[in-house]
Amino acid sequence: MTWTLAENVVEFLTVAGDFLRSRAAENTVILTATETIRARGATAFGPDDPLFGWWAAPGGPVTAAFMHTPPYGLALTTMPAEVAAALAGALADRGRFPAGVSASTDVGPSFAAAWELRTGQPARVGRRMRLFRLGRLLPPDPPPPGRARLAAPADSGLLLDWLEAFRQEADPGAGPAAEGMVADRLSYGGLTLWETGDGPVSLAGVTRAVAGQARIGPVYTPPARRGQGFGGAVTAAVSQAARNAGVAEVLLYTDLANPTSNALYQRLGYEPVSDGVLLVFLPAPVRQP
Questions:
Q1: Structure letter (DSSP) for residue 80
Q2: What is the mean pLDDT of residues 149-163?
Q3: Is the Cα dihedral 218, 25, 66, 85 positive or negative?
Q4: Which of 99, 114, 58 lies closest to 282 in space, CA to CA?
Q5: For residue 252, which of 164, 168, 133 has the smallest C-alpha distance?
Q6: What digits encode the pLDDT tens for the residues 55-83?
Q7: Which domains does the chain possess?
Q8: Which of 24, 32, 21, 26 is nearest to 216 (CA)?
Q9: How far apart are CA 104 and CA 77, in angstroms?
Q10: For residue 132, what are the β-bridge partners?
Q11: Nearest Cα to 132, choosing from 263, 9, 3?
């Protein structure tokens, strides 16, 4: 068995798509990102070409896969430790040095350990995450003042500002919000605002639906508007819209270091599925002569 690497998303999905779709919730990040690349092209996430790969015996089924979309780190499916170690070797041999790795709490450390052995780069925990799936939606009762509406091109300036503020809070290592990304989200109704008489007060996004699942995020409320129920209301509105559109599995990730958001989403009817970890690779120590 061996890793096959490819730069073409269509080739990747042709070979590994059935495997990814067989565990759609577990593989939500890879499924939704590759759907975005199919829609927007190889530079959907940045100027560097993405890289994909799958693990299989010749003529056998795919049993593991990965995706690398710089500036983001690797996204890995479930895989045994020895398969993760083989991937570390294949990427190092190719000269592909990701910023980090996002995976389940067992796969991520397995890959990171193999990567450090191969490259000398240690890893630190960037974020611990929990995947949630929507059960019975329980909107805020009573709801806060205002209503949900789809964001429009006229909102682009506000959306860019808020998405950049969200990035600075939640994921400073990621690239800044770009006009192309906002335009793409607007093209399929992927951003919703909660609006009061004072204007927009909160934002929630949703990915494209693929393989019967879609993922809520980002959710952002400016600091001055927090604690008033707007984030819960806009999240509930986007979740209901996804359900109305026929999405079977409505998902979202939370940062386990944020107890407020974890409690909020569970009050809305989201149920925990699995935990993951984002590990960030550090420079290899300089060896003294």
A1: -
A2: 96
A3: positive
A4: 99
A5: 133
A6: 998 889 999 999 999 989 999 999 999 99
A7: 2-130+277-281 (3.40.630), 136-268 (3.40.630.30)
A8: 32
A9: 8
A10: 252, 272
A11: 263
Instruction: Indicate the DSSP class of residue 209.
Output: P
Instruction: Please name the residue that has the structure tokens 């990040």.
Output: 29
Amino acid 113 reads A
pTM above 0.90, yes or no: yes
User: Hey, how many other C-beta atoms are within 10 angstroms of the C-beta on 186?
Assistant: 17
Quick check: 194 pLDDT over 70?
yes
Name the helix (H) or strand (E) containing 36: helix 28-40
Q: What is the DSSP letter of 196?
A: E
Tokens 């974020």 sit at which residue?
Answer: 127
Q: Which two tokens stand for residue 213?
A: 């699942």
Nearest C-alpha neighbor of 110 from the set 64, 143, 145, 152: 64
70 Cβ contact list (under 8 Å, min separation 6): 45, 46, 48, 50, 98, 99
Q: Token match 């935990």: residue?
A: 275
Encode pLDDT of 201-232 as tens digits. Answer: 999 999 999 999 999 999 999 999 999 999 99
User: What residues pair up with 62 in beta bridges, in sequence order?
Assistant: 56
pLDDT band at 197 (very low <50, low <70, confident <90, very high): very high
Whether residue 177 has pLDDT greater than 80:
no
User: Rounded to whole angstroms, how far apart are CA atoms 258 and 248?
Assistant: 27
